[in-house]
Amino acid sequence: MRSFCIIASAFAFADCALAQTATERVIPTLPPQINALPSLTPTILDNSAPDAQDCPGYIASNVVENGHGLTADLTIAGANCQAFGNDIADLVLEVNYQAKERLNVRIYPKNIAPANSSWFILPSHIVDQPEWDGKTTAESSDLKFEWSNDPTFQFRVLRASNNEELFSTYGHVIVYEDQFLELVTNMVEDYNVYGLAENIHNFRLGNNHTQTFYAVDAGNSIDRNVYGVIPFYQETRYHDGTNTTSHGVYARNAHGQEWLLRESTIAYRTLGGSFDLYFLSGQNGNGGSSALTTIAQFQTGCIGTPAMQMYWTFGYHQARWGYENISVSQGVVDGYREANIPLECFWHDLDIYDLYRDFTNNDVTYPLPEFTQWIESLHENGQHYVPIIDSNIYVSNPKNESDTYAPYENGKNLQIFIRDPTTGDFYFGNNWPGFSVWGDWLIPSTQEWWTNEIVNWHKGTPFDGIWIDLSEAASFCAGSCGNGRLTENPVHPPFLLPGDPLTFDFNYPEGFNISNATEAASAAAASASQSSVLSASPILPAPTTTTQGRTEPTPGVRNLNYPPYVINNVQAGHALGKSSIVPNATHNDQYNTTEYEMHNLFGLQISNATYHALLELFPGRRPFTVGRSVFAGSGKTTSHWGGDNTSTWGSMFLSISQAFTMMMSGIPMFGADTCGFARNTDYQLCSRWMELSAFFPFYRNHNVKATIGQEAYRWSSVAESARRAMAVRYSMLTYMYTLFYYAHTKGETVMRALAWEFPNDATLRETYNQFLLGPSILVTPVLVPNTETVQGVFPGIGEGERWYDWYTLAEVQAQPQENVTLSAPLEHINVHVRGGSILALQQPRLTTRDTRNTPYSLLVVLDESGKAKGSLYLDDGESLEQNATCLVQFSFADSCLNFSSEGDYHASQPLANITITGLADPVNGNNTHQRRDWAHHGGPQHSSLQYGGTSCDTSTFDTSYDNGVLKVSGTEKYTEGGAFQKDLNLCFEW
C-alpha cells in the first residue's frame, strides 16, 4: 500500500517541491565519433543531449594473466568527455572464471578513496558478491573471455564449446563517469530476452523497450519502473528449432539505471557504481543449456536460493484496507466459514493502527485485550494472522506531551534515522501518519531498535508474520518537508484518503457495462456527480510537480538530486526525489553514505531486518515476511506481492508475466492482489482471478477502501469458483511444498513459462496466457470477460507428451501446436496433468492444518512409455533447521508402482488410494502392445503388494477400471502407521 496514485497522485505540498535548480545547458566539445551506434535516446528529457558513445573509451595495459582470469589497467583514451558526469580516467579490469558456469567481469576506479567507496562499490555484506570457487580455470570454464584494444578496449564473452558469442561490446566504447556508466552489447537478430524484474510488461521483453530501475511507490506502472530492482536477464536462442541455447547476464549494481533494449543492441546505463557483470552459461551436465538451468545458476551462484516457507503460508489469505473494527473482521472470518471456503490467514491493513502509526492499536476499534483474544481465536481454529508494518516512523510533536510516540523516541535516542544533509537533523518526510522518519539500516543499532519494537508489539498483537509496505522507501512529499513544521503533526497526507468525503471509486472492469448494464449506468452517473462537486470546491491545493531537465556536469561536483542523466522514472518530472526520500539524504555510517547509492536497497534491508527480528521473536521458526520493494537476493528473507494493481482484466493478465520474473529472480513466494487492489471488481473478474491465483504460490485477496468489498463469499458465482479452485490447490499442497523444497535447495522455479519447460518450441517464446506449476501441472485461465471458453496449447504433443484433464483424467486430444478451444464456464479453470507424473495428494479442508491431517492418495499419470515418476518432500512445516526430513521418490514402470523414502520424518497419515491413468491406448504417440492389452482386458487380473519387504494380501482391495483409468482403494489397511514409512512395491498382472 500506496501513495494512491489512482485517485489523487498529483496532489503534493506546494512548498515541499524540490527547488527548480536547472542550469543553462552548454553542450561540451566532444571527440569525433568512434563507432556508429543505432539510435538510442540519450536522456528522457533532452533528446539533444550528448551521445555517450562519442566519448573516447579506454585502453587496456599492464595485462596480467593468472590461472583463473586476468587483471589490467584501463586508461581513458582521449580528452574528458563529461557526457553525464565527471570522467574517471583510470580504471581496473578484473576477469575471473569463478565457476565452470560463471564468468565475472569487473571494472571499477583505481585507487578509490574510502570515503567514496560506496559511490562505486556495492558492499558485499549487503548484496552477495560471488567469488572464485578455487578450482575453475580458463581452460575448464564453459565460457571464454576475449578482448581487444582496436581502436579502444572492448570485450566479448563466448561459449567455449562452439564460440557462440553471448555478449559483445565490440564496436562500442565503455563510458565510466562518476554519475554515469554505459556499456552496449550487440544482440542477435530478433533476440529473446526475459527478466529484468520487476516489470509489468509482456513476458518476452521485446526489442523496443526501456527498463528503468528505481524503486518507486507507483502502482500498476505498466512498462515503467515499479517496486523491485533485479538486474538480471536470461536470453534464449532457438537455432531453427533445434538445440535451443540459453545464457544469463547479471549486473550487480544498485544505482538507478536503465536497460535500453533496441533492435540490435542492449545499452546498460547506470547513475553510478561499477560494472560488476556475471555471465552464466546455462549449461547442464548433458552438454546443452536451458533457461531453467540458467535461472538456477543465477540463484545458486549469484544471489542465493529463496527461503523455505512455512507450510501454512500456502493457504488462502484475506486482507483489506477497510476492516473497521474487530466485529467487521470477525464477520469476514465467519463469512468464509459459512460459505465453506478455506481461509488460512487474516491480514489487517492500516485500520488497526492509532492514527496510522506503526506498532500501535486503535483503542476504540481494536482495543486490547479484546484484539489479542480475537487473534488467539484464529490460532485455535488453525488459522493465522498477519498485520501491516509501514516503513516510515511517525515523528512525535515536540510541543504536545500527549503526542509522544515511543518507537520514534526510542530510535531518536539511538540516533538511527536517515538524515537531512542541509540541517544535520533527521530527514523529515511525509507518510500516512504525518511527518515521518526512516531507519538507517547501515548501522547495527537500527536492527536492535527494530527488533525491540516488533517483539514488544507482538505481546498485544500476536501475529504470525509481517507485511512490510512502502519499502521503496516512499515519502508523500519531495524533500525534508517536515523541517520547522513538526509542531503541526499529525498532518493529513497531501492527497485525499480513501474514506474521505468524495473519494468513492466508481470504476469497474471492462465488460461490466455488458454484464451489469444498470449498475454501470448508475456508477457512471454517481462518478460524474462526485467529480462535479470536487471540481467546484477543491479540497486540497492545486497539484505541483518536480519537473527538472538535464543538468550540466560540473567538474568535482555530483548533483545527486538531479543527476545529468535523467532516467525515465515514472514519477512526475522523472525526478528521483518525487514520492521518495531524496537522493542526497545521508546515512549514519562513517562515510555518510547517501540515498543516491542506497535507495534501491531499502526494501532488501528492511526485509532482512524484519526477518532477523522474527527469528528473535520465534527462535528456530522460519520467518514469514512479505515485502513490497525487493532487490537481487531478497528471496532469502522475504516473499513479495505484486503491489497496487487494479481490478481490470489487463492487470490480472499481466500478473502472470510479473510472476515469471519473480520466479527468475529467486522470489518464488509471489502473488498478485487477487481481484485487484484499486477500483471495483465484479463477479466475473473476481471469479476468474480467484481461480487464477489459486495456482500462484502466494494466494491473497486484498483491496482498498472506497470500493466495494470483494471477499470470495460476496457473490455466489465467486464463492463457487473459489471452492472449486481451492479444492484443487489444497489437494496438491504437498506438490507445491515439494516444489519449494527444490527451489530452496537447487534454485528451481515453481511457476514456469511453457517456453522454459519446452525449450525447442519457438512458438512458445511469448506465451504467458498459460503456465505450468512445476513440471507437471498446466493451468489455462480465462483472462477476458463474457466468455465460457478459453484457448490453450498442449506443448510436446506429437513429440511424446501426453496431457490429461485434472477433473476427468481423460487424455487430451490435440494436434501439435494446436490452439485448442476448451470449455470454461465461469466456475471452472482448466487444469491438466502432464504424462509421466506422480503426485501425492490429500483431501482439501478449510485450513492447511486439517488438510495435512487427511490420508494421502497417489495420482499416477503415464507417459507414452507407460512410465511415471515424482517426489514428495516432508518435514514439520515450520522449523528453520529440521531435526528430521523425508524425501519420497515414486516411480511406475512395467506395471509396477514403487516408492522409497529417505529420512527420519514421520508422516502418520496412511495411503488411502491410488489412481493410475493413461493405461488405454494413447491418443497421440506410439501405441504399445502392453497398453492395448490393458484396454482389451478391462483392467488387471491380479495384483501383488510388498510393503516394507512384506507381502500383503490384495484381495481386499477395491479395484475399478474404466477407459484407461485404474482406481485402487483399501491400501490404508497396510499403511496405517504412515504412508511412506516403508518402501512399497505394487504390481499388476493383466
Number of strands: 46
Helix content: 10-25%
CATH first level of the domain at 31-303: which class?
A: Mainly Beta
What is the approximate shape?
globular
Describe this structure in words.
With 990 residues, the protein is an alpha+beta fold. Among the domains are: 31-303, Immunoglobulin-like (Sandwich); 501-536, no CATH class; 752-989, Golgi alpha-mannosidase II (Immunoglobulin-like, Sandwich). It contains 19 helices and 46 strands. A nine-stranded parallel β-sheet has the order 26-25-24-23-19-18-17-28-27. An eight-stranded antiparallel β-sheet has the order 1-2-3-4-16-13-12-10, with helices on one face. Strand 44 and strand 45 (965-969) form a beta hairpin. Helix 6 packs antiparallel against helix 7 (444-458). The protein is globular, with a radius of gyration of 29 Å. It starts with a helix and ends with a strand. Mean pLDDT is 92; it is low at 3-39 and 923-933.
Provide a concise account of the structure shown.
Helices cover 19% and strands 24% of the residues.
Topology record:
Layout: H1 5-8, E1 58-66, E2 69-76, E3 90-99, E4 102-109, H2 117-120, E5 143-148, E6 154-159, E7 165-168, E8 175-177, E9 180-186, E10 192-197, E11 209-213, E12 230-237, E13 245-251, E14 257-261, E15 265-270, E16 275-280, H3 291-303, E17 316-318, H4 326-338, E18 345-348, H5 370-380, E19 384-390, E20 393-394, H6 406-414, E21 429-431, E22 434-437, H7 444-458, E23 466-469, H8 512-515, H9 517-536, H10 595-598, H11 602-617, E24 625-627, E25 639-641, H12 649-664, E26 670-671, E27 673-674, H13 683-693, E28 699-701, H14 716-731, H15 733-746, E29 751-752, H16 754-757, E30 771-773, E31 777-780, E32 789-792, E33 803-805, E34 820-823, E35 830-834, E36 837-842, H17 848-852, E37 856-861, E38 868-874, E39 886-893, E40 896-903, E41 911-917, H18 929-937, E42 942-947, E43 950-952, E44 958-962, E45 965-969, H19 972-975, E46 984-989
Parallel strand pairs: 17-18, 17-28, 18-19, 19-23, 23-24, 24-25, 25-26, 27-28, 37-41
Antiparallel strand pairs: 1-2, 2-3, 3-4, 4-16, 5-6, 6-7, 8-9, 9-15, 10-12, 11-14, 12-13, 13-16, 14-15, 20-22, 21-22, 29-30, 30-31, 31-35, 32-34, 33-35, 36-37, 38-39, 39-40, 40-46, 41-45, 42-43, 42-46, 44-45
